Amino acid sequence: MPPQKAVIVGAGVAGIATAIRLALKGYNVEVFEAKSYPGGKLSEFIQNGYRFDAGPSLFTMPQYVDELFTLAGKNPLEHFNYQKLDVVCNYFYEDGTKLSAYADTARFSQEIADKTGESGQKVVRHLAGSRDIYDITHHVFLERSLHRLQTYLRWDTLRSVFRLPRIDAMRTMHQANAKAFTDERVVQFFDRYATYNGSNPYEAPATLNVIPHLEHHFGAWFPEGGMYAITQKLVKLAEDLGVKFNYNSPVSEVVVINGIAKGIRTNGNNVIADVVVSNMDIWFTYKKLLEKHPALHPQKTLNQERSSSALIFYWGIKKQFPQLDLHNIFFSADYQAEFQHLWQQQTIYHDPTVYVNISSKLNEADAPEGCENWFVMINVPANNGQDWDQLIAQARANIIAKLSRLLNTDIGSLIACESVLDPRSIESRTSSYKGSIYGTSSNNRFAAFLRHANRSSKIKGLYFAGGSVHPGGGIPLCLLSAKIVSELV
After folding, report:
1. Residue from 409, 347, 349 nearest 374 by CA
2. Which of 40, 180, 204, 307 has the fewest CB atoms inside 10 Å of its own CB, making it the most exposed?
3. Mean pLDDT, to the nearest integer, of 329-340?
4. 380 in Cβ contact with 427 (< 8 Å)
């Protein structure tokens, strides 16, 4: 009897990981990708001798990548290497303060105490609370389907349910952080973690204070060859397992007959399958691939508030800056005003928080000698018809002025080449509705339960993976969504 066939729509990291897991379960797997390359947001490009990772730039919880090699009977160290960062990120404040977020908790807490006067013990206690939230939630919210009865019948789930008051869902992140610390710079530091899933610390539940644990306990890492190496290595693993990748193959429809997913339609042809997995944004999955079946659309889910988007400038910089590291943050002087502009006014604040990633710090080949490749990003609202050309021009001027002032250098004169990614191009290139990077926002205490499930309750044989469904956006959660799908199939 021939193996069952699985088709996957989209070669994002979750689609690739799902392909690997299903191949290991004995499925004949094909992946159909609209672009000419794999990776989705996790892609790269080269311009004027500068190499840029186009999307995600922070690598945490590498064990979820390693696990895929281990499941395939391979030693991860022989196929995928990465180094741990001693300094996770440098933080620059408008008052001249510079904080280095050391990976070592004792050293980091001392850094906070030395630079701000805040008690280092408070930092240790806050990170311990972050660990508690992780211990309570990861079995339930991250590693299993929330939409399956047997998840709630497990002993570790029941233990977590009894401890739910400790995940601090009734306060906002900012309320919890402002209660924990007196120094506004430290509060701002911990508030920033809301942006890791495109949310607002003044609205998102304090449960998201789990994120510092993921970074400070599990560490931040840099893959050998850059972030795109994650895509390359996983595609190679999938191909070694017999997965077939079809590029330049946009899927136009999930074929549904009598409530059962029977395959897909691509380039005018039907591909019959026993299992269909969509790695496409859930909004486009329904609105495009299931356009013929409006009665099956979960309208309430599709109408949820979207996460924030990003405006990214990729700059080739004709100079090296020894005071900068791989990850650097230049904070806004008024964080609350920045988020009010982003969420309530749906625009860009004149003094945005600026993130600068420089992979050439660790991978020298990413920039010409004596130069650096700057990935310069600010958080911006999802695309709701704003005048982006005007907003981008103004934001560019404000960012250059801010960086020039804080680095005491005319940054604009050092830009040798430039590319731009904004919410419109994020949507067109990655099928992310409105350019939202993480699907729906987490500005709701019930957000974890409101994300779309990893399988359809109305169409048998249809599953979903990626950042727009459970458990959420970012590389680790996308990889976990693949794990959940493989367990559901």
Report:
1. 409
2. 180
3. 98
4. no
Contact, 9 vs 289, CB < 8 A?
A: yes
- Look at 70-79, 142-151, 453-462 and tell me which has the smallest mean pLDDT: 142-151
Bridge partners, residue 373, by sequence: 316
Between residues 144 and 198, the one the model is more confident about: 198
- C-alpha to C-alpha distance for 407 and 37, rounded to whole angstroms: 37
Predicted TM-score (pTM) of the model is 0.93
Split at pLDDT 50, 70, 90, the class of 444 is: confident
CA 318 to chain CA mean position, Å: 29
Q: CA geometry: angle at 451 spanning 32 and 139, to 5°? A: 100
Task: Give the pLDDT confidence of 58-111 residue by residue, as tens digits.
Answer: 999 999 999 999 999 999 999 999 999 999 999 999 999 999 999 999 999 999
Q: Tokens 């380039």 label which residue? A: 267
> And the tokens for 174?
């900012």
Q: 3-state SS of the chain? A: CCCCEEEEECCEHHHHHHHHHHHHCCCEEEEECCCCCCECCCCEEEECCEEEECCCCCEECCHHHHHHHHHCCCCHHHCCCEEECCEEEEEECCCCCEEEEECCHHHHHHHHHHHHCCCHHHHHHHHHHHHHHHHHHHHHHHCCCCCCHHHHHCHHHHHHHHCHHHHCCCCEHHHHHHHHCCCHHHHHHHHHHHHHHCCCCCCCEHHHHHHHHHHHCCCEEEECCCCHHHHHHHHHHHHHCCCEEECCCCEEEEEEECCEEEEEEECCEEEECCEEEECCCHHHHHHHHCCCCHHHCCHHHHCCCECCEEEEEEEEECCCCCCCCCEEEECCCCHHHHHHHHHHCCCCCCCCCEEEECHHHCCHHHCCCCCEEEEEEEEECCCCCCCHHHHHHHHHHHHHHHHHHHHCCCCHHHEEEEEEECHHHHHHHHCCHHHCCCCECCCCCCHHHHCECCECCCCECEEECCCCECCCCCHHHHHHHHHHHHHHC
> How many whole angstroms separate alpha carbon 106 and alpha carbon 114?
12
* Identity at 368, one-letter amino acid code: P
CA-CA distance, 198 to 440, in Å (whole number)?
8
CA distance 472 to 124: 27
Query: What is the Cβ-side half-sphere exposure of residue 360, based on CA atoms within 13 angstroms?
Result: 27
Classify residue 460 as exposed, middle or buried by CB count within 10 Å of its CB (0-12, 13-18, 19+): middle
- Calculate what percentage of the chain has a pLDDT beyond 90: 83
Cβ contact 195:203 at 8 Å:
no
Count Cβ atoms within 10 A of the Cβ of residue 350 and give its class: 0-12 exposed, 13-18 middle, 19 or more buried.
middle
